[in-house]
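Researcher: Here's a chain I'd like modeled. Treat it as a single chain, no partners, no ligands.
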Amino acid sequence: MERPIYLDHHATTPCDARVVAAMQPYFAEEYGNAASRTHAFGWRAAEAVERARAQVAALVGADPREVVFTSGATEANNLALCGGARALRRARGGAGARLVTCATEHRAVLDPVAALEREGFTALRLPVAPDGRLDPERLRAALAEPALLVSVMHANNEIGVLQPIDALARLAAEAGAAFHCDAAQSAGSLALDLTQLGVDYLSLSAHKLYGPKGVGALVVRRGARLEPILHGGGHERGLRSGTLPVALCVGFGAAAELARERREADARRLAALRDRLLARLEAELPELAVNGSREQRLPGNLNVSFLGAEGEALLAALPELALSTGSACTSAKREASHVLRALGADEARALSALRFGIGRGNSEDEIDRAAELVIAATRRLRALSPVWDELRRGRKRAARS
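Model: Modeled as a single isolated chain. Structure tokens:
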């Protein structure tokens, strides 16, 4: 079988060849430990890490000293939420241990929040509008009661919807709460500036922007309170112990620099490919529903429900395409997406959704081929579906009345 067309760039991106080339020397030739400061091997490794730190900082308008390397965005989220919440509670003498987040967050935020609840914190999960956006007025009302920390992701990993982070962070600051933002999905394709956004903690991941898996960062704004969740050596200014993977840090830095150079051109191109795909699907398939805001979303994201054709069945019928029904981190669980249910989607709509993640390497020909395959597979499955028969009968009854 031919290699499938890869349309799952929200799960991971291929490592750019230039990033691989930048990392290569640090696997076998420059193998020093960046914490070994007594010889040249360690000095060169430390210099490479600091160059990478500066490149990552430049991607989001931060000071290099604000970048803490982690194993990925999941660890960065845990460090911000658990390390931030505990440090803030300690600073306030244990008072007001309340957290606020959003119902559509990634599990790497929702699960740490649940763990903090088991420690005695309280948490409020705010609902979103049907387009997936969080109304700032909802947050304003939630912050009428004191809170330590607010966490809202920039771009949703399933539906690609963008949240008004600057407005939300401003409300949190006015209420005396710290603000965390998971920007793993957006940092490679949208311009971000830590100061303008007004966030205290920003989570990043290299493998979402054509870098290597296994490395990420938490950007901690100067003055933000944080205590470590890993202990054992005091690396990363005492905030994240553990020997740094120098090659991966170098790769993250190279990928961040490439993203900064290319993101405007990439964003225009990906949005055009996404719109091309959607136009073809909508022209050929009735009862197709786009999940999430059509305007406020990542340029390469399209999440669509094909009513009358179950998402898992579509995936099985499309071996020529690499797609997903939602988050790669929850794909082992066959259940309706918590993100789509938070938008008000019923189970049939949630279970008939596919996520298209268009990336840097995709071509117009691939998009056109993907559309043809999805249209044909949807028609085949709908022909066998009692749900689709009921939908058609319902349309006929509505037309007669």
